[in-house]
Write a structure and sequence with these properties.
The complex is a heterodimer of chains A (255) and B (341). Chain A is built from eleven helices and no strands. Chain A has 255 residues and is mainly α. Chain A has one domain. In chain A, 47% of the residues are buried. Chain B is an alpha/beta fold and 341 residues long. Chain B has two domains: 28-256, Rossmann fold (3-Layer(aba) Sandwich), CATH 3.40.50.300; 260-321, Alpha-Beta Plaits (2-Layer Sandwich). Chain B contains eleven helices and 14 strands. Chain B has a six-stranded mixed beta sheet, with helices on both faces. Chain B has a four-stranded antiparallel beta sheet with strand order 2-1-4-5, covered by helices on one side. In chain B, strands 12-13-11-14 form a four-stranded antiparallel beta sheet, covered by helices on one side. In chain B, helix 3 crosses helix 4 (141-154) and helix 4 crosses helix 5 (170-182). Chain B is globular and about 75 Å long. The two termini of chain B are 38 Å apart. Classes of the chains: A mainly alpha (255), B alpha/beta (341).
């Protein structure tokens, strides 16, 4: 079992005892109801897939970003961060494994959103491309972990990085077309949106819920994975650099 | 608490340390290490010297005590040796590897044990904790599980292996700490105040376990401000105060070095007589309370003079004794007690 899998399982064991991790299951149905109500009010029943995809991705991303910062803060306060740094393991692998666990758990939010649409609004959405959806969900969970791990290095460096964490969510949702299609954004902003893995994931999810054939699913899933991998590499490099810095400054245990 | 089951291979007897031996063969070599913290949170920024010119060598298989009051620099030295902190000046090597340049190799050969509640996952069981920490040292699958079981048995927690750690007593947590420190089968163990907060019985058990580690040939660096603990388990002790190493000697030698020190205790001594005793040459300290006087001397002739004066004044309830390590320590670092400077 690799260190990645050990860390993933470790976080899965912690999850039922961490109420913060479970918040996605409380917020996803509410967001779904809000989005569906707006779509219904506007007479845009064609946006039902948006109302399912958006809460899923928002919940997953909030969870991933939350744990990326929280795990460093918690490890630091309970003294385990220092003990971990004193082991030969690669902290970046531990971090990404643990974030991956919660982003995988967050996938269940999609089932919740789907049920809310069906039971609450009578809109039972078919899943005509289950394999594309499944692969996209897994790639997206991994990409989330990789990208969110960048934030962990920030938390090692600055214990007060929570403000950055809190301000990252909604701009990213907008930029990545999770809430509204990228095509509705100003032209100059769209290329930036394509650099965010979430925009590819959101499109894939919506296409997988649509009756039409999904164009180039493998390539698009590969883009999600590659963007996530890039995030992981950046996060790992940053973390290594930050750890060298805090060792030099002696600020590892600062809270 | 200590089980005989699966204690691991007995490597060698603890060696006699030969000062001047090869630095290449020493388990821990600290050369002129200094550490200065810059407090950037204060205005203006200020520099705090935690360690200054510390040199120390610990032989393989030795149990070495690092003694000092709070704030003396013990934990800073531990952090440097466990690679979580870089020295500002000087160098340190563990099993021949530099803690700065070869930090990953150093981490493979060390185990770190904290004191107190920190360093464990309270929401997980003891077994889950060891699985996780074992994985940090590269252990996998059956080897990891077997190692966890051996250690749980060894530290007497096999019966509570599936209990959440936050339900454990302080002593049980400390035993789990030690198991965590041993999970990577390290040749060098750094124990930072391992018995802090333990009750006396648990502390005795813990000392027995350290004895086992010595018999296995592991090198142990133990920080403490408990003199009795250092006397009970250490081959040698280093006294550290305000970031400076005052001396390194065998526990016995420290006593011999200070053999000139004696303590005279007498009852029914009036205050005026106590003042006369205090004025004698060679008397370094006098404590007088409710008629009882405790006199510390730094040479045998002074002890004789004190006894003569007391006898001459008709005081007959008198006793003398050698100082314990705690008193030796206080002689060396001064009587500022355990105050943080």
């Amino acid at each position: 079992m690799s260190l990645f899998l050990v860390s993933l399982r470790f976080q899965l064991r912690l999850a039922p005892r961490s109420p913060g991790t479970l918040q996605v299951w409380a917020t996803a149905p509410l967001f779904t109801a809000v989005f569906l109500s707006i779509a219904e009010h506007a007479g845009r029943t064609d946006l039902t897939s948006y109302a399912i995809v958006a809460p899923t991705l928002m919940g997953q991303w909030a969870l991933a970003l939350g744990i990326a910062g929280e795990l460093i803060t918690e490890e630091r306060s309970q003294g385990t961060l220092e003990a971990m740094i004193a082991t030969p393991c690669r902290l970046s692998v531990v971090v990404v494994g643990r974030i991956c666990a919660v982003s995988l758990l967050g996938i269940t939010a999609m089932a919740e959103a789907w049920l809310v649409a069906g039971l609450g609004f009578g809109r039972w959405i078919a899943v005509p491309h289950p394999f594309v959806l499944g692969a996209a969900l897994l790639a997206n969970a991994a990409a989330m972990a990789g990208t969110a791990s960048i934030l962990s290095s920030l938390f090692v460096l600055m214990p007060s990085a929570r403000i950055v964490q809190n301000t990252l969510n909604y701009p990213l949702y907008l930029l990545s077309g999770v809430l509204v299609p990228l095509s509705t954004l100003p032209g100059w902003l769209r290329p930036f949106g394509r650099l965010v893995f979430l925009s590819w994931s959101a499109d894939l999810f919506r296409d997988a819920l649509d009756g039409a054939a999904v164009s180039g699913p493998a390539a698009r899933i590969a883009v999600v994975a590659l963007l996530g991998l890039s995030g992981y590499v950046i996060g790992a490099l940053l973390l290594a650099r930050v750890l060298r810095r805090v060792r030099r400054l002696g600020t590892l245990t600062h809270t | 608490m200590v089980s005989n089951a699966e204690q691991g291979p007995v490597r060698q007897e603890a060696p006699e340390y030969a000062p001047g031996g090869s630095a290449a063969t020493d388990a821990i070599v600290v050369e002129d290490v200094g550490r200065v913290y810059v407090d950037r949170r204060s205005r203006p920024t200020r520099e705090v010297t935690a360690l200054s010119g510390v040199s120390l060598r610990v032989a393989p298989g030795e149990v070495h005590g690092l003694l000092g009051p709070n704030g003396a620099g013990k934990t800073t030295l531990c952090k440097i040796l466990t690679t979580t902190l870089e020295p500002t000046t000087g160098s340190a090597r563990v099993l021949g590897r530099d803690v700065t340049g070869q930090s990953r190799a150093v981490r493979r050969s060390i185990g770190l044990v904290f004191g107190g509640d920190r360093g464990l996952y309270g929401r997980l069981s003891a077994r889950e904790n060891l699985w996780f920490w074992g994985a940090m040292y590269g252990l996998r699958r059956s080897r990891l599980r077997a190692r966890a079981e051996v250690l749980l048995e060894r530290v007497g927690l096999a019966d509570r292996a599936d209990s959440r750690v936050d339900t454990f007593s302080r002593g049980m947590k400390q035993r789990l700490h030690l198991a965590r420190g041993l999970v990577g089968d390290p040749r060098v163990l750094i124990l930072d105040e391992p018995t802090v907060g333990m009750d006396p019985v648990a502390a005795l058990d813990f000392r027995a376990l350290i004895g086992e580690l010595r018999r296995e040939g592991r090198t142990v660096l133990l920080t403490t401000h408990d003199m009795a603990e250092a006397e009970a388990v250490c081959d040698r002790v280093s006294l550290i105060d305000r970031g400076r190493l005052i001396m390194t000697e065998s526990t016995d030698a420290v006593g011999r070095l200070l053999s000139g020190y004696e303590r005279v205790v007498a009852d029914d001594v009036p205050a005026e007589l106590a003042r006369r005793v205090e004025a004698l040459d060679g008397v370094v300290a006098v404590r007088h309370e409710a008629g009882r006087v405790e006199v510390e001397t730094e040479q045998p002739s002074a002890t004789s003079a004190v006894l003569s004066v007391l006898a001459g004044a008709g005081v007959h309830r008198v006793s003398t004794a050698r100082p314990d390590l705690g008193e030796v320590y206080l002689h060396l670092v001064g009587r500022r007690g355990m105050a943080v400077t």
